[in-house]
Amino acid sequence: xxHNDWDELLKEEFSKDYFVKLTEDIKNEYASNTCYPPIxxxxxxxxxxxxxxxxxxxxxxxxxxxxxxxxxxxxxxxKGVPFPPSLQNIFAEYSSDLxxxxxxxxxxxxxxxxGVLLLNSILSVRESQAASHEKYxxxxxxxxxIRLLNEKKxxxxxxxxxxxxxxxxxxxxxxxxxxLENVHxxxxxxxxxxxxxxxxxxxxxxxxxxxxxxxxFDLS
Length: 220
Description:
Blueprint: H1 6-9, H2 11-14, H3 17-32, E1 35-36, H4 44-48, E2 56-59, H5 85-98, H6 109-114, E3 116-117, E4 125-126, H7 138-150, E5 157-161, H8 163-166, E6 178-182, H9 199-209
Parallel strand pairs: 2-3, 2-5, 5-6
Antiparallel strand pairs: 1-4
């Protein structure tokens, strides 16, 4: 149970044959391999940010696949864990855009509480094997979530960084929403347009322009 409005919204999805099989496959994966995030945290992004409260979707691909990093929230790592390269670049842009110091912690939970749904397209991964759980059907589930967000009557922002996330653009058809797409903040691509893109300012400008309270991004 997610203990918020997602339970009812996803009730039909949870009962579909693919999701029942997905659940069994993932349980078997966790039983036979080291997988991340901890199994009880797989759905934490949905627990943290209700459908009603979601103002921004920050879409990741799949969880970090090294020990102690993944915590069920896209791009976020647990307190005390060194920042992975992509998160380092996100924080560099955050600092430049908002004129704020680099955070001490990579835990993005405060953003989730502000209405930023920190969702990965694939909600679990085997240790040291990126995208290893893609084949189990997670994207069918998370695509359904994106479609539900697209149906929202209140304008929101969809943040799509990297080709994997940008491929979800076709699911976002409601013209009231803002799509912010760019290259991935990975060191391989961040220099090709991520740095200097000012996504945080753009998010809040859009929210304010549609009569909504901006996101308090400050993690200091």
